[in-house]
Amino acid sequence: MPVFVVQQHDARRMHYDVRLEVDGVLKSWAVPRGPSLDPVVKRLAVPTDDHEMSYATYEGVHEGARYGSGAVIVWDAGDYQNQTRDKQHQLIKPALAIERGHFRFALQGVKLTGSWAFTRTGRDGDWLLVKVRDEAADPSLDLTVTEPHSILSGLTIEEMAASAGSDG
């Protein structure tokens, strides 16, 4: 099963990087407000550069690094399953789904489970991340508020940022 990771990143602005393994790299979108469990809520998702697979477990503080400065934690991670189908109900490979502008997948993470979809919105190149209506949908729960800690280190983004200042 391919992997996914959601990294909280305090760069110029706080955001969540949603990354999905596709053809040996992590396809990535910056989601400013993080994933929502409410199927009615559409979250802006801005495509970013592909990342190496080794980046899936990165936590720390970038200083003017290639991927932007600021603290990073692994907010969630796990496996995902492609669910994108064509009009004949045949599975479409993830790379082709992304190229076509609609990618549906099921997450099996520590915090996030169930089905989700990225959909390109049109001319500006932005995408939307939407929770699919399923048993894991919960409009009353905001995991970005109730579950702020890294699944790897147990630190919040603020604690990770503070740890960089205490290295001296």
TrEMBL record:
Residues 7-120 form the DNA ligase D 3'-phosphoesterase domain. InterPro entries: LigD_PE_domain (IPR014144). It comes from the Bacteria. Pfam families: LigD_N. PANTHER family: DNA LIGASE D 3'-PHOSPHOESTERASE DOMAIN-CONTAINING PROTEIN, DNA LIGASE D, 3'-PHOSPHOESTERASE DOMAIN. NCBIfam families: LigD_PE_dom. This is DNA ligase D 3'-phosphoesterase domain-containing protein.
